Amino acid sequence: MAASKKAKSARKTSSGKGQKAGGSMTNNLTSDAYRTHTCGALRSADVGEQVHVSGWVHRVRDHGGLLFIDLRDHYGLTQCVIEPENPEFSKAEVARSEWVLKISGKVVDRSSDNLNPDLPTGEVEVRIENIEVLSEASELPLPVFNEPDYPEETRLTYRFLDLRRETLHANIVKRATIIASIRRRMTDAGFFEFQTPILTASSPEGARDFLVPSRMHPGKFYALPQAPQQFKQLVMIAGFDRYFQIAPCFRDEDARADRSPGEFYQLDIEMSFVSQEDVFNAVEPVMRDLFEEFADGKPVTQNFPQITYAESLQKYGSDKPDLRNPIEMEDVTEHFRGSGFKIFAGQIKKDDKVRVWAIPAKTGGSRAFCDRMNSWAQGEGQPGLGYIFFREISLPDEAFSDLKHPLKELSIKQQIPSSQESGETFVPQSASTYIGGAGPVAKNIGEDRTEALRKQLNLGIGDAVFFVCGVPKKFADFAGQARTKVGEDLDLVDRDRFDFCWIVDYPMFEWDEDAKKVDFSHNPFSMPQGGLEALETKDPLDVLAYQYDIVCNGVELSSGAIRNHKPEIMRKAFGIAGYDESVLEEKFGGMLRALQYGAPPHGGIAPGVDRIVMLLCGEPNIREVTMFPMNQQAEDLLMGAPSEVSAQQLRELHIRLNLPKS
RNA sequence: GGGGGUGUAGCUCAGUUGGUUAGAGCGCUGGCCUGUCACGCCAGAGGCCGCGGGUUCGAGUCCCGUCACUCCCGCCA
Q1: Ranges A407-416, A447-456, A643-652: which has the least confidence
Q2: pLDDT per residue over A288-341, tens digit each?
Q3: Helix (H) or strand (E) holding A265
Q4: Is pLDDT above 90 for A421?
Q5: Residue closest to sugar C1' of B10 by CA
Q6: Which nucleotide has its C1' atom closest to residue A156's CA?
Q7: Do A203 and A227 contact (CB within 8 A), yes or no?
Q8: What is the separation, in whole angstroms, between the first and last Cα of chain A?
Q9: ipTM of this complex > 0.95?
Q10: Which of A138, A510, A134, A502 is nearest to A320 (CA)?
């Protein structure tokens, strides 16, 4: 796989970077008991010096008459060399991978044909005079040298070895550097980092809580915070004005590739006396500059566009659009109304909520691709995916004798490079051809409608368009998946960019089909747009909230809101969602009380730290940016968590087990 | 809770239509080698083919079950 290639190049870059990151460690060590230099420090300027280096045996190359040891530490790699005449040779000879050695000797120049340009220390080597074995290593279950893919289970069980490996080591260092940068940026912007409790109260909303039994209060439990949501609002009400925290959050839900089971970190932010725009103005530069700092030169959106939730759904079929994908869907319902494509026309006639959305697919204009999309759609449980693809078609003979022949007129019209209006370049048609739609849909709706569609979507020869039809709420998600698939399969997505946007104007409430009632669509503490009046006068499902997300490359990075700081609006909002005032009092009593003693208007946001690091490390899996992750079953294979506890511990907690039969 | 993928040497993998003694690379052990940096060469050890059952003269291969890991759906205000 590409993993080993990647590993090799990572070795070069991160050795260099490691030295920068650990610059203070290179020469001013307080003691030279173990080392005078790190393994990444030596350069030709050090030639002639008597040095100690300590580290792990990365690799041994035994030539019989000459033996090389690559000694590795956090900072880099240094080649050490010894000859058999040396009395220390017998010690060098037995050293194996990952033993820990202290090597003393003189720094020497490598002759010009022996340089290793791939190594920052590649101009010199240490001529071994003394070896001290600090620690031996058993045969490795997981090699540190080279980085083939290893089974997750082995990697997690021997995480300490895995963490020595180049890519993961570099990712974790990058994570630390990113977090340090976040702290600096937030502090510089006038925010204070406050700690909030880890043992707190269970909250009825949201995810499943992790519970911690109380010894002092039999039968009662603490909960680990799903987020410091209420605390940060209380911090605002307490007058601290600007808060942030790299906050651990705990949710007892199943894992995904981008979601650790159990715990994750948020850059939790809250500000007083702010509007939504104020929050944007504070957070956007932090995110943009942070990404620019760590993006390795990839372009980052300078001004995050604001896209409404409704528009995002319509154009991208998702509230977390990947804007690197240039495809924007369009409503083309009118082209199908009363058309010969009965499947769509019939639905449109029956229900005025029915829409047809088009997914334009530039360069997708082949029957093979369209058929592939169609069978993909069927695999997704859809009846199929209607399509038209455009190709150059010769005019029929009769068109040449009849100037007014519709196809001839079409051909002439198409030769006006309408594409130039949009800056696109089409291959111009010759006088004897026209751009015609192919496929069952085109056949059924006819030349005129097909041409109108082509014009609206600005498509040309070699392009295609796919159609989804139905009630948007039901098909939007599928349409979004189709958009993503078209973009990726046709390679229309520019992967070397960070494309940000704000998604704004989320609905305050949504219809809960299971419970057959109106419920909060996001955060129950959000301020409804229009305040109390909107709640009293509008259909709840039409009320928008001051609720927003940051999305980057199709990843939901964070969500936030201007909070509801008025108790009467809160009571009303919870009432609409069907919560009795007593429930509100019981579950959010502290919050409600706080709002009654002078709460400032406030709001905030909480970007996901793990996902930021994933994006910046280019890793699709959160375990690649987490030092000690749990596996998918939420087990820590290294430490053995979760584990059974003693009967004594259970007794103290007043807990008796009632285990499932298996 | 549901669906998909994977499971063969310490590790990564190959293993044809069911057919003799299950192979390779890395690692490990031993030997040779003075300029390598994925060192090279020679030899060797190392296998409950995840586990259980079935079909068959014969199963790594087919069938059923089960377990583990992983990806996805549900879930994640």
Answers
A1: A407-416
A2: 999 999 999 999 999 999 999 999 999 999 999 999 999 999 999 999 999 999
A3: strand A262-272
A4: no
A5: A141
A6: B69
A7: no
A8: 40
A9: no
A10: A502
Phi, psi of A50 (to 5 degrees): -95, 120
Nearest nucleotide to A228 (CA to C1') is B77
CA of A490 to C1' of B15 (A): 36
User: For residues A23 and A60, which has the higher predicted lDDT (pLDDT)?
Assistant: A60
Q: For A517 and B73, how far is CA from C1' in angstroms? A: 24
Burial status of residue A212 (CB atoms within 10 A of its CB: 0-12, 13-18, 19 or more): middle
Measured at the CA of A309, the angle between CA A307 and CA A314, to 5 degrees, comes to: 90
The CA radius of gyration of chain A, in Å to the nearest whole number, is 32
- CA A1 to C1' B61, in angstroms, rounded, equals 26
User: Which string of b and e fits A328-346 if b means at least 16 CB within 10 Å?
Assistant: bbbebbebbeebebeebbe
At residue A364, the 3 state secondary structure works out as coil
For A621-630, what is each residue's pLDDT tens digit? 999 999 999 9
Residue nearest to nucleotide B6 (CA to C1'): A151
Identify nearest nucleotide to residue A632 by CA to C1′ distance: B70
pLDDT tens figures, A224-257: 999 999 999 999 999 999 999 999 999 999 999 9
pLDDT at A423 over 50: no
- The structure tokens listed for A322 are 């990947």
Q: Are A540 and A518 in contact (CB under 8 A)?
A: yes
Confidence grade of residue A30 (pLDDT, cut at 50, 70, 90): low
Token pair for residue A282?
A: 């504070």
Q: Inter-axis angle of helices A581-595 and A229-237, to 10 degrees?
A: 40
Please give the model's pTM, rounded to 2 decimal places. 0.89
Lowest mean pLDDT among A53-62, A134-143, A651-660: A134-143
ω into A642 cis (within 30 of 0): yes
Q: How far is CA A654 from the centre of its chain?
A: 42
What mean pLDDT do residues A209-229 have? Answer: 95
Task: Please write down the long-range contacts of A143-150, taking CB distance under 8 Å and 24 or more positions apart.
Answer: A143/A97, A144/A56, A144/A58, A144/A97, A144/A98, A145/A58, A145/A59, A145/A97, A146/A4, A146/A7, A147/A3, A147/A4, A147/A6, A147/A7, A147/A10, A148/A1, A148/A3, A148/A4, A149/A1, A149/A3
CA distances to A58, A287, A425, A652 from A647, rounded to whole Å, are: 46, 49, 76, 9
Which residues, 6 or more positions from A112, have their beta carbon under 8 angstroms from its beta carbon?
none
Structure tokens, A482: 């189709």
Distance CA(A346)–CA(A338), nearest Å, equals 8
Tell me which of A434 and A52 has the higher pLDDT: A52
Residues forming beta bridges with residue A360, ordered by sequence position: A465
Neighbour-count burial of A532, counting CB atoms closer than 10 A to its CB (0-12 exposed, 13-18 middle, 19+ buried): middle
Q: What is the pLDDT of residue A24?
A: 41
CA of A376 to C1' of B64 (A): 31
